[in-house]
Amino acid sequence: MTKDVIALTQRMPDPWTVLAGLLSGGSDKLLGTEGEGAVVQLCDEDGRPLVSVEAPLLVQVAGEAERLLGATAPPVPFWWTEARATTGVEEAEHLAGTFAARLVSLAGGSAWPPEAARSLAVVKSEGVSVAPTPAAAQPAVDVLTDKVAVVIQDRPVVAMTAWLSDAFRAAAGAELGLQIVSPAGSTLSPAVRDSLSGWPSRWIVQDEREGYYDGRTGAVLRWQDGMFAPVEAADATADDPRTPVAASYQEVTDTGDRQLAVSFRTVHPADDRLVLGGALESVWRELTGEPPAGWGTAEPANLPWSLRQLTDVAFDRAPEPTWFVVVGSPDRPGLATVRISRTKAGVEEDVRLAFGYGPDEKPPVDALPRAAEALATRHHLQSMLVQLRKARRDLAMPPRFEGPGVPLAFVLGADEVRVMPGDRARRTPLPEPPVQLGPRARPALYYPLPGNPSDLSGWRDFERLMRHLKGE
Question: Which residue of 232, 315, 350, 462 is 20 to 30 Å from 325, comparing CA positions?
C-alpha cells in the first residue's frame, strides 16, 4: 500500500534542509522532477520514482492538521511537506519516513504518522527498483487500467490533497474513472465525496468480512474487468440485478450529531469589478456569526479567508472553471466546496456547504430566512436547498450508512420567479405559502418544507413542489 508521510515544521524547509532529507537514500540516488518542478522524486536506478516530495505548503489556517490527520501541528503559520512512497516497496516507505524525520529535526515540528519518521539514518536501498507500471508517471496513482485510475490512501481522512486533485484532473483528461481505496478506519472529506459522483468513480473500503465495499452505497465490490465493480447477489436476475450490501456498512449508531447542509447557486453578470465569494461569506456570517476561517485550492485549506485573493485566482484561471475548499474555525466545524465557472448566463458560483453540531448544540434554523434574503437581494441567487442530516459533527463521511437529510426549505431566486408564467411560483401544493424575500416588485420566494423529520415526507413535499414549479 502506498504510504504518505507528512512533515509539519515550524520553519520553512530551505533548500539545504530539503537536500538533507533527499539524501536519506544516500548520495547515489537519482533525482527527478514532475509538475514543472513542484514535485521532486527519489528514483531507482532506472529513473522510476521511489518517493515523490511535494513543495512545502505554508498553512495559515488553524485546525487543519487536527481535522485531516488527527495530529497536533505547530502554531500557525506552519509548513506542510508531503512525501509519498511508491506502492509495494518497503524501502520506499522507509525513505519517505527518513526524509520527514530529517526535515523535522532541522526545521522543528513533528511528523505524521509519528512511527514512520523515527530514524535519521541512510536507508539501504541499493538494487531496489520499482515495477514499470504506467502509473509511475503520475505520483498519486497506484494502478492504471483502460477504465480507471486507482489511488490507495492510508490516512485518517481521505482529503482533496494536491496529489489527489492532480489525480482527478489526470483521470478526467484521460476519460477514466477514479477509484480511491482506503482502510476500514478511514473517513472521507466532503470535498472528495462531492467529486466522486460519476461512475465508475468510487470510494472503496477494505473490509475483513467482505473484502471490499463501496463506502458511499455499501455495495460489495470485487476487482473485475480492470476496475472495482459490484458483485451480483446469488438471487439476482436481469430484471432485478441486486447487489449484496456489506454488513459493516449497515452498522449504524445514532450519536445525536447533526449537519445543516446548504446548497445554492448564484449567477453574476460578468464584470471586471466582480468580487467572488461574497455569497458564501454572507451565509456563513448569518449561520455562525463569523466569516469563514480559510480557503485553498486543495486540502489542507492553507490561506486566511480573503474575497480578493479568491477572486484573483478565479480570474487568473478563467475561462477554465475553478474549484475551492473553504473551512471554518475548529470550534464550529464548517466546510464548503465552491465551483466557479464562466457560462453564457454569466459567472456562476455553485456552493455546497455544511456545518456540524453535537447532541447538545442547536442548528440555527431560525437564521435560514435571513441567509436566503441576503443571497436573494445582494448576490443574484438562482436557487437554494437546505437540509438537516443525521451525520457527524466533524463533517467527515464514515464508510457507514447515513440516511438522507430532511429538506427544511427551498428558495427560488427573483429572476427564476419572474420568468415563470402567471403566478405559478406563488401558488404551491404545500400547506404553507412561500415567503417573499426582497422588494415586492421583484421578490425571491422562500418555501418552507414542513416534512416530518422521522420519515421521508419532507422529500415528498419537495418533489411535489418541484413538479409544480416545472408545470407538471
Answer: 462
